[in-house]
Amino acid sequence: MNDQDILRTVLAALDRRQAVALVTVTAGTGRFADRVGTRQVVTMEPAQPSPGGLSVPELEGQIWGDINAALAVRASRRAEYEADGSFLQVFIDIQAPPPHLLIVGAGHIAAPLAEIGRICEFEVTVLDDRPQYANRQRFPSADRVIAGAFTDELRRLRREQPTFDENTYLVLVTRGHQYDIACLLEVLDDPVAYIGMIGSQRRIRAVYELLESEQGIAPEKLDRIHAPIGLDIGAQTPAEIAVCIMAEIISVQRGRAGDAGRGSLSAPLQRQRRARRNS
C-alpha cells in the first residue's frame, strides 16, 4: 500500500465520519526484522479484512484484536508481540473525525452551549425553525447553523451525511414539548451516543406519557434519554446550564456514564419511572 493509497483510504473514512487506524511496524527482530516500516490501513467497515498487509500471519489475530480495541475507544496505542523468540512492535495510529454536537433549538441555552462545544473540539450544528434565532450572528463559532422545520431538517441531515452515529451527541433544547416529541420520534432509534432533553421533571413526564400512550413507544426505549438534561451542579444561568450539559456529554463520551448518573438530573426521574413499571 503506497502513500497515496493510504491517504485516500484515510480521507474517505473520515468523510464517512468513521475512525481509521494506520498500523505501522516500528520494530522487529528475528523473523520480523524485515517487516519494519510495513503499514496497513484498517477502517471500521463491517467487511474490512484482517490486516494481512503486515505479512505476519502468526500474530494476525492478536494484532487485529488490538486494532479493534483501539478503534473502539478512538485512541492510538503501541503494541508488542513475541513469537518463537522473535519480537514485533506496532504503532496503531487512530485518526477519527471530531465528535458531533447537534443542538436542536437555538434559544438562550444553545448559544453558550455551542461556544463550549467548540472549545471542547466538537463539530457543532445548531438547528431551529426560527431564522431570527438560527443565524450566524447568534452562532458565529458553529460549523453549521440551519433554519428550517425540525423534523424535515433532521431527515435531511440523515440523508446527506452520516450524522446520526455513535459519535453524535444530540441535545434537545426546543421551546416546547410538542417539538421535543416530534424530534424524539425522529431520532429515538438512531445509534447516537447521547440524547439529552431539557425541561422540568413535570414537562419530561408529560413528554414520556404522550410517547408511551399515543405513540406506543416502549418505556425501555425512553431510558436512554438524559432528561432532565445535564449534571446536577446547581446551575441557574444559561451559561451554567450549558456547562452542566457539556459535562454530562463528556462523561458519556469518556465512558463515565455510570459515575455521571449519580449526579445527573435525570437519575431521580429514571428511578421513579422504573419503580412504577416494576410495581
Task: Tell me what the structure shows.
This protein is of the alpha/beta class. The protein has helices at 3-15, 60-73, 110-119, 150-160, 177-187, 201-215, 219-222, 238-253, 257-263, 266-278, and strands at 20-28, 39-43, 77-83, 86-95, 100-104, 123-128, 144-147, 168-172, 194-197, 225-226. Helix 5 crosses helix 6 (201-215). The longest helix is centred in the last third of the chain and has 16 residues, at 238-253. It starts with a helix and ends with a helix.
Helical content, roughly? Answer: 40-55%
Could you tell me the radius of gyration in angstroms? 22 Å
**What's the arrangement of strands in the largest beta sheet?**
7-6-5-8-9-10
Query: What's the count of strands?
Result: 10
Number of H- or I-type helical stretches: 10
Total domain units = 2
CATH superfamily of the largest domain: NAD(P)-binding Rossmann-like Domain
Instruction: Tell me the overall shape.
Output: elongated
- The ordered H/E elements are HEEHEEEHEEHEHEHHEHHH
What are the low-pLDDT stretches, counting only 5+ consecutive residues below 50?
none
Q: Give the amount of beta strand, in percent.
A: 15-25%
Biggest beta-sheet profile: 6 strands, parallel
Mean pLDDT metric: 87
Given helix and strand content, the structural type is alpha/beta
Considering the chains and any ligands shown, give keywords for the structure.
four-stranded antiparallel beta sheet; alpha/beta; six-stranded parallel beta sheet; 279 residues; Rossmann fold; elongated
